[in-house]
Amino acid sequence: MMYETTVVPLLLGFLEGLTEFIPVSSTGHLLIAGHFLGFENSGRTFEVVIQLGAILAVVHLYLGKIVRTVGGLGHDPQARRFAASVLIAFLPAVFAGLLLHDFIKHILFESQAVIATALIVGGVVLLLIDKLPIRPRHLDAERFSLPMALGVGIAQCLALIPGVSRSGATIVGALLMGADRRAAAEFSFFLSIPTMVAAVGYDIWKSRSEIDLTAVHEIAIGFVAAFVTAIIVVRWLLSYLGSHGFALFGWWRIIVGVAVWIALLAG
Transmembrane region positions (predicted)? Predict the structure, then answer.
């Protein structure tokens, strides 16, 4: 009982914080881990709510910049432009998510084969992106053009498929449009705040009849674990991408995806 109510939620919360902002798909990892650990919860309440812990980590780390941007909307053109770029990048996933929500949650989220395949394909993409002769032209996440932000937002729609990775799709999209790695990652972090808040809020609303909040102890453990781990990972990722590529994440995805396929084929 202790394992099911404390250790498993702690492991899953740690996994959420570890994988939410690196391009390996936190959703895919959570669903796979929950499946093989036998962790069941009504309406996916646990997986949905602990994502808020990861979101809070980004808000905590970038609180000063967020406050300056919001405070400058009335008088600072650069603040308004940055806010507009995040909003424009956010909108494509809103429309796609509203249109495909039920199909994604009840069909794709239940398919371990879809998740494993998406992990492998995404891993190959990350290995290839390191080989492309991309010359960065955009070095500041706060100065992305509006068309560039829209392109990143369209790329984010791919992450509606579990296993693709929201951060992976947005970072790769920004890189292909000329952003350097750090700027691409930072824009992905900022975009995650409205995207994940909206996704979690809408998912809770749609699944309100299925939600089970009786396991508050489990949710609290997972939430705190995700928050603390995400703070460490975001700080590390910005430093790591400054001098390294995406091979680590690409091979990680491929290994996990292949392992899941082997497990599924073995029954």
Answer: 45-63, 83-101, 113-132, 144-164, 184-205, 217-238, 244-266
Question: Where is 78: in which H helix or E strand?
Answer: helix 77-106
State how far the Cα of 266 lies from the Cα of 253, in Å rounded to an integer. 20
User: Residue 185: phi, psi to the nearest 5?
Assistant: -65, -40
Q: Count Cβ neighbours within 10 Å for each residue of 204-238 and write b for 16 or more, e otherwise.
A: beebeeebeeebeebbebbbbbbbebbbebbeebb
Alpha-carbon distances, residue 168 vs 23, 94, 243 (angstroms): 4, 18, 18
- In tens, the pLDDT along 163-204 reads 899 999 999 999 999 999 999 999 999 999 999 888 888 877
Q: Which residues of 67-106 are buried (b: 16+ CB within 10 A; e: fewer)?
A: eebeeeeeeeeebeebbebbebbbebbbebbeeebeebbe
User: Distance of CA 264 to CAs 31, 111, 260, Å?
Assistant: 14, 11, 6
Model confidence at 210: pLDDT above 80: no
Helices (H) and strands (E) in the chain, counts: 12, 0
Residue 2 has pLDDT above 60, yes or no: no
Alpha helices per DSSP H over 141-209:
146-156, 166-176, 181-206
Q: What is the pLDDT of residues 238-254, one digit of tens each?
A: 889 878 889 999 999 99
For residue 209 the two structure tokens come to 């009849």
pLDDT score for 42 = 53
Classify residue 76 by its DSSP letter.
-
Can you tell me the mean pLDDT for 86-93?
95
Q: Measured between alpha carbons, how far is 15 from 34 in angstroms, rounded to an integer?
A: 11
